[in-house]
Backbone:
């Protein structure tokens, strides 16, 4: 796999591309790149057909090991890697990450060390990119000692994983892309990109969908697309803030002004949408917004119908993917 | 005689059994019968989008008046221009009356001449569902076919209650017909009752046939009755009801039941079974069901059915579905798509064979595949015998020539 940066903006945001993947040599992924979150190797709520309705083209999928580790034996028997096993062949590529050395799975706690990770997991699942396992078990309130230890352990694991990989198939890429994990709100997303992060994970749209909410933040630079002006109910900002736990070092003063006005989402469970005939987001061209109104999606979430999360996920991913396209364009135009 | 928004044209009649293949036109779309109608209870087929149903060539869906009447309620639906618009489905819809759910879901449902009295499950207040109210809600929902409110009695009940219900059903039909405000856009079907009593059932059918309606439903037969009585009542009902109007057998959806009841002369069916069993991780196949949660599928890299052309079978393996069945909601979508495809394909095969005059051979093949040990259910064997099919001595009763219509 090759990573090349071809433009660096004033802010240190970078435009680049990932190419020459062994499994799909003709694929090109532009960075900053959004990884679509998956669980059990599928995008939550969206089968392949529904994913195609969100947008066609190549996706890079992020596959947390914790949702797959119970099944690596079966994928190994399959022999063709996790992408094909999950019905995602041809257009999709997998990327693995793990954020703890002993993930909790449905079957209980499992111990994964670098050897096991590499041999049983990576070789069975055959991702196109994978991340060395890390000790990510820290939060804002962890002690300095814990944080230091986690960094040491992580570096050690990374070294072991790299060695094992080299032994199995040769060299690592020289020009390395930078990846950041964790659900990221739109403000954090912009900050990370402007610091030069290339790969970001797409858990945020999913988490928002899980609470029955649709993303409505402005995601393009068009002057007509003014910030949301309708009177939205007061959004419980703490739910959004809770996902910022990994951002301690990146927080800066500018965030205060936005925190008060920041409204990323509308919660379709709210009764005010009972007879609202507008689409989830005016002007959005996704399947859900073109075909349905808020009142229908409200009905689905109120009655617990599975189609509710499906429509919301389709919208949220579409919206988030478009925000990445806008970001790439903005870097190109130096805005 | 009113002009109903429904036409029913018989294309082919099986010369051996009572099966027939027909073409029904309704306001939103054509329907080829015999037809199986998937159930989209609350305004959506659990976990799949309408486009997927269109791809499977589903022509008609069922919605439940009881649920929709509560949420989102008739006023909102009316303001949206009906359920078709609300749920984004441009083909046909059929709604039931709400009576069945009421009796089966609610603890204190009391039936009086006025209607069904019950305690609202939302706020405990006393509510009354009358024939007039049921039709009012169904008018707002806007389905192409709507059902009368009938006095539903469990098929395990016997005695005078059954006769009372049968007569009341006719009186309620008349009230429904009178209350129906959109006869030019929606077809109201009566429901034949009478429990398991041939005399009562005959009487019910006769009374209902006196009214000017576009089709008939056969009710009261998908409860706890034994299959032996079940088929006899179906057979009796289809003998009585006219052949040139659709006959809708309510609540039937198991493959064997569908095949036999087509042979007995039914044209329309509905059942929650295929979609419900999908949510539990079970996929329908020609030999029955596959419980994909079983460990035996962990390394089974075949699709659910190698001969199935649905999007699930073209792309996903049993092994992968095993990993996500009942764990991830994607599994629900994938298996539901397959199960609906299975049901619709079964009906398509039935229709094509009736058209070609090979329905009898189809039945033999179907039964052999479903019961490889030749342990055919007794009731099915008996039922097929009265329509000139003997599963054990093939060719002996099948005397009629195949003649094109």
Residues:
């Amino acid at each position: 796999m090759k990573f090349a940066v071809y433009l660096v903006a004033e802010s240190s945001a970078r435009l680049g591309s990932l190419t020459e993947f062994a499994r799909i040599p003709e694929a090109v992924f532009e960075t900053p790149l959004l990884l679509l979150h998956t669980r059990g190797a599928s995008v939550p709520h969206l089968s392949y057909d529904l994913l195609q309705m969100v947008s066609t083209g190549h996706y890079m999928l992020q596959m947390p090991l914790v949702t797959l580790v119970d099944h690596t034996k079966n994928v190994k028997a399959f022999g063709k890697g996790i992408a094909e096993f999950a019905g995602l062949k041809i257009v999709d590529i997998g990327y693995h990450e793990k954020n703890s050395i002993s993930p909790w799975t449905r079957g209980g706690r499992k111990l994964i060390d670098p050897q096991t990770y590499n041999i049983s997991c990576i070789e069975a699942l055959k991702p196109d990119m994978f991340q060395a396992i890390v000790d990510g078990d820290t939060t804002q309130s962890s002690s300095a000692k814990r944080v230091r230890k986690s960094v040491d352990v992580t570096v050690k694991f990374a070294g072991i994983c790299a060695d094992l990989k080299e032994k199995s198939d040769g060299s690592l890429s020289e020009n390395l892309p930078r990846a950041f994990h964790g659900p990221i709100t739109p403000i954090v997303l912009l900050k990370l990109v402007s610091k030069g992060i290339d790969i970001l994970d797409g858990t945020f749209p999913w988490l928002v969908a899980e609470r029955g909410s649709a993303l409505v933040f402005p995601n393009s630079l068009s002057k007509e697309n003014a910030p949301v002006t309708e009177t939205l109910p007061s959004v419980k900002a703490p739910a959004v803030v809770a996902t910022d736990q990994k951002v301690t070092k990146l927080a800066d003063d500018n965030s205060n002004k936005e925190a008060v006005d920041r409204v990323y989402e509308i919660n379709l469970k709210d009764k005010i949408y009972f007879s609202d005939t507008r689409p989830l987001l005016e002007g959005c061209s996704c399947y859900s917004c073109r075909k349905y109104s808020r009142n229908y999606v409200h009905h689905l979430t109120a009655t617990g119908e599975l189609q509710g999360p499906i429509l919301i996920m389709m919208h949220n991913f579409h919206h988030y993917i478009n925000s990445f396209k806008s970001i790439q364009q903005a870097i190109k135009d130096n805005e | 005689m009113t002009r109903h928004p429904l036409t029913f044209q018989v294309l082919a009649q099986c010369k051996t059994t009572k099966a027939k293949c027909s073409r029904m036109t309704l306001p939103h779309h054509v329907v080829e019968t015999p037809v199986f109608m998937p159930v989209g209870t609350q305004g959506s087929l659990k976990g799949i989008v309408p486009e997927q149903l269109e791809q499977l060539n589903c022509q008609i869906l069922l919605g439940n008046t009881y649920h929709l009447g509560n949420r989102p309620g008739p006023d909102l639906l009316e303001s949206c221009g009906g359920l078709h618009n609300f749920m984004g489905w441009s083909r046909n819809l059929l709604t039931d009356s709400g009576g069945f759910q009421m009796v089966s879901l609610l603890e204190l449902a009391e039936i009086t001449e006025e209607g069904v009295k019950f305690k609202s499950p939302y706020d405990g207040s006393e509510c009354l569902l009358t024939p007039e109210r049921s039709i009012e809600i169904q008018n707002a929902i806007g389905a192409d076919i709507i059902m009368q409110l009938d006095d539903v009695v469990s098929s395990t009940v016997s005695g005078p209650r059954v006769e009372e219900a049968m007569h009341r059903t006719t009186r309620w039909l008349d009230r429904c017909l009178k209350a129906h405000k959109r006869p030019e856009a929606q077809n109201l079907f009566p429901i034949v009752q009478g429990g398991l009593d041939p005399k009562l059932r005959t009487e019910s059918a006769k009374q209902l046939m006196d009214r000017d309606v576009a089709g008939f439903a056969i009710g009261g037969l998908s409860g706890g009755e034994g299959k032996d009585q079940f088929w006899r009542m179906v057979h009796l009902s289809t003998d009585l009801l006219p052949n040139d109007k659709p006959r809708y057998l309510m609540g039937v959806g198991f493959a064997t039941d569908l095949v036999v009841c087509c042979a007995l002369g039914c044209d329309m069916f509905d059942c929650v079974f295929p979609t419900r069993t999908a949510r539990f991780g079970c996929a329908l196949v020609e030999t029955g069901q596959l419980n994909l949660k079983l460990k035996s599928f962990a390394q089974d890299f075949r699709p659910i059915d190698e001969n199935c052309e649905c999007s699930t079978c073209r792309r996903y393996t049993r092994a992968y579905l095993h990993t996500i069945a009942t764990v991830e909601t994607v599994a629900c979508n994938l298996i539901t798509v397959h199960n609906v495809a299975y049901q619709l394909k079964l009906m398509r095969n039935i229709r094509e064979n009736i058209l070609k005059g090979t329905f009898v051979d189809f039945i033999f093949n179907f039964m052999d595949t479903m019961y490889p040990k030749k342990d055919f259910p007794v009731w099915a064997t008996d039922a097929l015998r009265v329509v000139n099919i003997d599963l054990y001595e093939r060719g002996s009763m099948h005397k009629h020539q195949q003649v094109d219509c």
